[in-house]
Amino acid sequence: MMRFTTTIHDQAYAVVADYVKKSGEDTTDDHNLKAPYASLCKLVKAEYFIPCLMEVCQVFWRIMFCYKEVKEWHNQGGLETQSESVDWTFDRSYVRTKLENGLLRVWRDVQQKVRPYILALDMSHFKYDDFIRVLDIVNRLISIGMEFCGEGSSSLQDSMRQQSLNYFKNYHRARLEELKIFLETEAWEVCPVRSTFSVHQLREFRFIIFCNVSKILFTEGS
């Protein structure tokens, strides 16, 4: 079990460190070499974020697959022996139980490596397609985790929820700035209307009437 835990940690660190080198960071510096995993994740530049995430997830998928294979091998009997002693039967039962309980441990170790990586970068300036791609990768990993041990990942979902809120908040702010520039530079002309004209007469704004009526009824009812 410890071998899988160690492999998850070492492989994640190695992949991220490799992309930090590609990002042009000086990983020969002792400070960077000894940096905690979460700090190392912050050194990956935006253009390498998705390739690094994909490679990290692929490494984890292979580790989880290997763990499943080991578990299935033991469930099917492992090494066949002619003598079925009490001690041997007990040992096999113990190993199977440990491997079954280890499914959650492996999956949670994976989450502990993916979560800080997701939160290490501000994705608010990503292109829309790139951001959706990150969502797809993380959701696919969560689906694999569910199939692996029957447990989803609220921590990864919360991480992507934080990034999504930040992304669309920035997206809306940018669109409002564009709209402001458009309104300020557009050549406007006065439109002749009747003196009885109201904005509520426009189909696009009729919902305002219903909203106001509903608000009044709700206030009176309470």
Automatic annotation (TrEMBL):
InterPro entries given in the database record: VPS50 (IPR040047), VPS54_N (IPR019515)
Keyword Coiled coil: yes
An example Gene Ontology molecular-function term: SNARE binding
Record domain Vacuolar protein sorting-associated protein 54 N-terminal: where: 2-73
Keywords: Coiled coil, Protein transport, Transport
A Pfam cross-reference name: Vps54_N
Coiled coil (residue ranges): none
Keyword flag Coiled coil: yes
PANTHER family (UniProt xref): SYNDETIN (PTHR13258:SF0)
Listed name of the protein: Syndetin
Organism: Geodia barretti (Barrett's horny sponge)
